[in-house]
Amino acid sequence: MGLLLPLLVFHWRVLRQEAIIPWDMPGHHLPLASAFADALREGVLPLWEPYAYCGRPLLANPQVMTFYPPMLACVLPGREGLLYRLEWMGLLHVFFAAWLAFRLARRLGLETAPALLTGLMFELGALPASQAQHLSALCGMPWIVLAWTGLF
């Protein structure tokens, strides 16, 4: 609860759908996810997004996260509410990364309060707070911390 509540408060307007995470989220990630959702609805592999310029690859683009189960869970219901689900997915990954950072700090010998501060700094620090529009970076955060945990 010590890590979840600050994240919910910080992103309260986004989670209540009073605001959106701007820039890349609606302008880059949403069109890619929409094309992915459309391909699934049509029953075809998400190989190509034909709308931007002369088209661009979907399956070969790591930012589409075609084979990532949370992304699949976001796009399966279709386009309706897709931006909101993408925002939630990114923020849940930030929370998971903060929790893993807390666990890593505890594993390294920190007491509970400093370890909690470590998790809070990780979830409300520079990247997740100021660059929340970079969905693939947010989704990679917990896996990076998990890799760090494997080193210790």
Please describe the topology of this protein.
Elements: H1 4-10, H2 12-15, H3 24-42, E1 48-49, E2 56-57, H4 69-75, H5 82-107, H6 112-124, H7 126-130, H8 135-151
Helix pairs in contact: 3-5, 4-5, 5-6, 5-8
What's the β-strand tally?
Answer: 2
Given as residue ranges, the uncertain stretches (5+ residues, pLDDT < 50) are none
Task: Report the structural category.
Answer: mainly alpha
Instruction: Give the ordered list of helices and strands.
Output: HHHEEHHHHH
Shape: elongated
Description:
The model has no long low-confidence stretch (mean pLDDT 95). The protein is mostly helical and 152 residues long. Strand 1 (48-49) and strand 2 (56-57) form a beta hairpin. It has helices at 4-10, 12-15, 24-42, 69-75, 82-107, 112-124, 126-130, 135-151; strands spanning 48-49, 56-57. A two-stranded antiparallel ribbon has the order 1-2. The chain has eight helices and two strands; from the N terminus they run αααββααααα. It is 64% helix and 3% strand.
